[in-house]
């Protein structure tokens, strides 16, 4: 089965300190790896003003992960855990065609 490439973008709440943000990113990178995904890169994008307020926040820290996986197990687990994590304001998973 061919590997599928994905791009995961998530917004971290801006008042998280650097150590907590690093722990959060490592934890979610590990969730992907433990469920069979290969991470191509995982990088901070930038702090941006949000188009609308989310949980009383007007800005957020954007983080982007490019990965490949043979099945959607890693993506499903990331999605499930990101929905219940209070430090992640929003996330988006896109299947890449390149």
UniProtKB/TrEMBL annotation:
BP GO terms, sorted: translation
Alphabetized UniProt keyword annotations: Ribonucleoprotein, Ribosomal protein, RNA-binding, rRNA-binding
Keyword match Ribonucleoprotein: yes
One Pfam family named in its UniProt record: Ribosomal_S6
GO CC terms: cytoplasm; ribonucleoprotein complex; ribosome
GO molecular function, one term: small ribosomal subunit rRNA binding
Keyword tRNA processing: no
Top-level taxon in the UniProt lineage: Bacteria
UniProt family annotation: Belongs to the bacterial ribosomal protein bS6 family.
UniProt function note: Binds together with bS18 to 16S ribosomal RNA.
Name the record gives this protein: Small ribosomal subunit protein bS6
Annotated organism of origin: Lacticaseibacillus zeae DSM 20178 = KCTC 3804
Gene: rpsF
């Amino acid at each position: 089965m061919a590997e599928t490439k994905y791009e995961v973008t998530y917004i971290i709440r801006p008042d998280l300190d650097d150590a907590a943000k690093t722990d959060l990113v490592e934890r979610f990178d590990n969730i992907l790896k433990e469920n069979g995904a290969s991470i191509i890169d995982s990088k901070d994008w930038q702090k941006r003003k949000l188009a609308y307020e989310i949980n009383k926040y007007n800005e957020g820290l954007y983080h982007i992960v490019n990965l490949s996986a043979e099945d959607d197990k890693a993506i499903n687990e990331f999605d499930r855990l990101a929905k219940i994590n209070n430090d992640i304001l929003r996330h988006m998973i896109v299947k890449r065609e390149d």
